[in-house]
Specification:
InterPro entries: HAD-like_sf, HAD-like_SPP, HAD-SF_hydro_IA, HAD_sf, PGP-like_dom2. This is HAD superfamily hydrolase (TIGR01509 family). GO terms for molecular function: sugar-phosphatase activity. It is a single chain. The protein is an alpha/beta fold. The protein folds into 2 domains: 139 residues, 3-Layer(aba) Sandwich (Rossmann fold); 65 residues. Helix content is 41%, strand content 11%. The chain is built from 10 helices and 8 strands. The strands form 2 sheets. The chain has a 6-stranded parallel β-sheet with strand order 5-4-1-6-7-8, with helices on both faces. Strand 4, helix 6 and strand 5 form a beta-alpha-beta unit. Helix 3 crosses helix 4. It is globular and about 50 Å long.
Length: 234
């Protein structure tokens, strides 16, 4: 059943864009640098963190071989370098189709814990940057998720009340933030083992229930996205 709403605010990493390869490569290289194995449990602990939190978590997992700020910045630099390689950044299944279907019918925004300059690059490479009316990162919001401030700031920039907006998230911190902001939350976990507290939890953006939530015809799922040749991004 469609949920009445006036705007949609998306997370980016793991929700709209699959950055897993770039992040996994960066974590693998950083952990190898300090001779520490990167296991799946440790990798899951790093999902949805902003720079300061990421640095602290990396310092804990690596045995504090360097200041947290240095470790967090090192990973971000590795990711920025890695995302320039062909095939490392691709849209999540259904992301381009859903954003294309929503674009022009209601305001769209991004609320993210990733620096805006990195997110802008992601969106441009996915071919959907122009669909968004606002991109809000933790610096612009004044706090990172799980604080609701990124979502509240995004809604304010769109000129809509949070109670009339839908959030789309893949991480626990993100769903906590969106719920605290008073939004209807669609959860699409990027890692199956992550339990999300959301109003709707779906396997991905191609799930017909997600499209029905927005009141968008599911038939548009099979329509080729403008400018997209397959699912990969050059």
């Amino acid at each position: 059943m469609p949920i009445p709403h006036d705007a949609v605010v998306f997370d980016c990493d793991g929700t709209l864009v699959d950055t897993e390869t770039a992040w996994n490569d960066a974590y693998r290289d950083l952990f190898a640098r300090y001779g520490v194995p990167l296991d799946p449990v440790a990798r899951t602990r790093l999902v949805g963190l902003q720079l300061a939190e990421l640095g602290e978590e990396l310092a804990y997992l690596l045995g504090r071989p360097a200041p947290p700020e240095e470790l967090g910045r090192a990973v971000y630099e590795m990711v920025c370098d890695g995302t320039t390689a062909p095939g490392t950044i691709v849209p999540m299944p259904g992301a381009v189709e859903l954003v294309t279907a929503l674009h022009g019918t209601r305001p769209l925004a991004i609320a993210t814990n990733t620096p805006v300059e990195i997110v802008t690059g992601y969106l441009r490479r996915a071919g959907i940057h122009d669909a968004f009316d606002a991109v809000v990162d933790f610096a612009a919001a004044g706090a990172a998720k799980p604080s609701p401030l990124p979502y509240l700031r995004a809604c304010a920039e769109l000129g809509v009340h949070p109670g009339r907006a839908i959030a789309v998230e893949d991480s626990r911190n993100g769903t906590v933030a969106a719920r605290a902001a008073g939004m209807f939350v669609v959860g699409v976990p990027s890692h199956p083992e992550i339990g999300l507290e959301a109003d709707l939890v779906a396997a991905g953006l191609r799930d017909p229930r997600v499209w029905l939530t927005f009141g968008v015809p599911v038939a548009l799922l099979d329509r080729p996205a403008p400018g997209a040749a397959g699912s990969s991004v050059p």
